[in-house]
Amino acid sequence: MHDLETTLALLANTPAALNALLRDLPDAWTRVNEGEKTWSAFDVVGHLIHCEHDDWMPRVRVILEHGNAVPFPPFDRFGHVKAVEGKSMPELLDELIQLRAENLAELRGLRLTEAVLARRGQHPALGVVTLSELLATWAAHDLNHIHQLSRVMAHQYREAVGPFRQYLGVMRCDAHGA
Amino acid sequence: MHDLETTLALLANTPAALNALLRDLPDAWTRVNEGEKTWSAFDVVGHLIHCEHDDWMPRVRVILEHGNAVPFPPFDRFGHVKAVEGKSMPELLDELIQLRAENLAELRGLRLTEAVLARRGQHPALGVVTLSELLATWAAHDLNHIHQLSRVMAHQYREAVGPFRQYLGVMRCDAHGA
Fold it and tell me: Is residue A101 less than 8 Å (CB to CB) from chain B?
């Protein structure tokens, strides 16, 4: 059973956690990726911002207004590329902190009941999903990207750690197709 | 080439990042694991504390005093179990923040040069490792455990996310033997 307060607690913490981890780190940690067409920690934060704008709350609103009669608006997985251009990591983090706070305030204001959480929406690829599943995924998606950026950052040290590499599971993570 | 300042920047940030992520989260996120003999986020923080005591700086000191003439003291991977008993997450986080700050102050005080970073130590299982590799591993080990705890936490939502599960790579992570 999905508990909304548990989800909200994590969603409230993620921006501050990323801020504490990333704000003042050298680019050697945050602006490097795992190779062509992969994401850096900087890109990940940009993607999270883009999702605050275009993914989670717009989908919540579609479910509340139309149920599954109207599919979710399309989401561009590379929509962050333009949005982060020319920005610094501190600017992105400030933006994420602000957008998330606004979205959670809106979400709390909806006072969602169990009955409303069971409402269905239409995902363009996955088919029917519930509002509860959408909100649980918002939190799991934060964790998915913390998982990703810790891997991308660790990758930068794959040579520096020498023989210790074999003890570091993160160095063997193949990204699971994500 | 391993840059010590880059390593120190990450080591300085990890405790605050974990604090922001975990301090006030419900136990449903932090005290649950992936099954028998696996670790919760709480256990991971306990392990990081144990490493601050028994792993990194003791090994640094052995290298500086004895080079690879004396092997590193043994490290108990389950040594945290007793250390966390009866403690709360906020207590563990306070402890980690304090120990890490003390250890980094000691490390900075050593004013390690490139020549000293090249010194060798004797790992009981891995054989010869350099001081540079040991310190790079300290940082990568933080990332390894952020990777782990994001996976363990996401695992708790494997049912709640419904069909979205297939988009969440973290749900397919098998821990890479770690």
Answer: no
Residue B87, Cβ neighbours under 10 Å: how many? 15
Torsion (CA) B17, B21, B27, B30 in degrees, nearest 10: -50
The residues of chain B scoring below 70 in pLDDT are 175-178
Chain-chain contact of B140 with A168 (C-beta, under 8 angstroms): yes
Asked if A21 lies within 8 A of B29 by C-beta distance, the reply is no
Rounded CA-CA distance A84/A79 in Å is 9
Predicted ipTM? 0.96
The single residue listed with the structure tokens 């670790």 is B39
Residue B166 confidence (pLDDT)? 95
Query: How much is the mean pLDDT over chain A?
Result: 95
- A50: helix, coil or strand? helix
Query: Given this model, what pLDDT does residue B83 score?
Result: 81
**Alpha-carbon distance A153 to B15, whole Å?**
16
Strand B120-123, strand B127-130: pairing: antiparallel
